Fold:
Amino acid sequence: MTAGPRSLSQSYHPECEAAINHQISLELYAAHRFEVTASYFHSQEVALKHFAQFFLQQASQEMEHVHRLMELQNQRGGRLCLQDISSHDRSCWENCLMAMECALHLKMGVNQSLLKLHQLAVQMRDANLCDFLKSDYLFQQMKFIQELEGHITNLRQMEAPESGLAEDLCAKLTLGDSKKKN
Structure:
């Protein structure tokens, strides 16, 4: 007699499965926001291609996270159950600094959710999930948050909100090689 479809997930706690589904939805939302931000910076009215490339790269990174989490969900015998991605009320920003600050706020929320997921995995004694999160996500999230904080500091020091030239210069100096970094 064959076991039911849920037999693979005997050691996979339902709370972990639900939390991973939530994380996948959150990562999809972040990817969507970064795509919208990239499109804004790529528009003819704004035309800051380095900012557009930076946010496109981040959207791609978020989608990579989504795919790895979905793969983990499948490997563990979990069921994929995604939430709707709500649209954001802001599709343009007053300046690059504001866009970077919004991105930082978003990434800090994603990171906080990952930390809660890791804490849940520890509570449920799910060593596999703990290892997955430590090796694939937590350090990478912290590193990107630090990078965003650095860009925000640079924009503030250059008084970017008051000077469009400062935004362009900052983009070329700090974001211009973003394709080469990752």
Residues 127-157 form the longest helix (31 residues). Residues 1-8 have pLDDT under 50 and may be disordered.
